[in-house]
Amino acid sequence: MYATRDDLNAAFGPDQVERLAARPDVEDDAMTVARALSHADGVIDARLSVRFTLPLPTIPEVLRDIACDIAIARLASDATGLTDDLKRREDQAHASLKAISKGEMNLGLPAVTEGERPQPIVSSTGGKIFTRDQLRGF
């Protein structure tokens, strides 16, 4: 997990987090916050997996901030409270993740080398297994 509810509270204030997480059909807002944080984790993992082995050995502060920005925007959009500032922060978070995945921003963590990435399986049979002559009559 890149960020916690405590991180969200520290970044945006507990009142705002509670207000954005409140849902009329949900008694406890902890599940709503957990879903938003899980969404942020998925977005971050999708971007970082092309460059780093997951899970990361440590979580850099910049990723915690990115996770908070994505999660609070998710909460705000679900509660129809997405302000221009929150949208701008979410857009910047996505731009930062893109830059990290391209190697334009450095997290200070070891990147996956080419030899560690999954490689395609290539084999050679030496000749065609099925030819027209072999399949004639089927």
Mean pLDDT: 87
Structural class: mainly alpha
Which outline best applies?
elongated
Helical proportion, percent range: 55-70%
Beta percentage is under 5%
Question: How many DSSP H or I helices?
Answer: 6
Characterize the structure shown.
It is elongated and about 75 Å long. The protein is built from 6 helices and no strands. It is an all-alpha fold and 138 residues long. It has helices spanning 5-12, 14-21, 30-48, 61-78, 84-102, 132-135. The model has no long low-confidence stretch (mean pLDDT 87).
Ordered list of secondary-structure elements with their pairings:
Blueprint lengths: L4 H8 L1 H8 L8 H19 L12 H18 L5 H19 L29 H4 L3
Helix pairs in contact: 1-2, 1-4, 3-4, 4-5
Concise description?
By secondary structure, this protein is mostly helical. The chain has helices at residues 5-12, 14-21, 30-48, 61-78, 84-102, 132-135.
Q: Which tags fit this structure?
A:
single chain; mainly alpha; 0% strand; elongated; DUF1320 domain-containing protein; Phage_Mu_GpJ
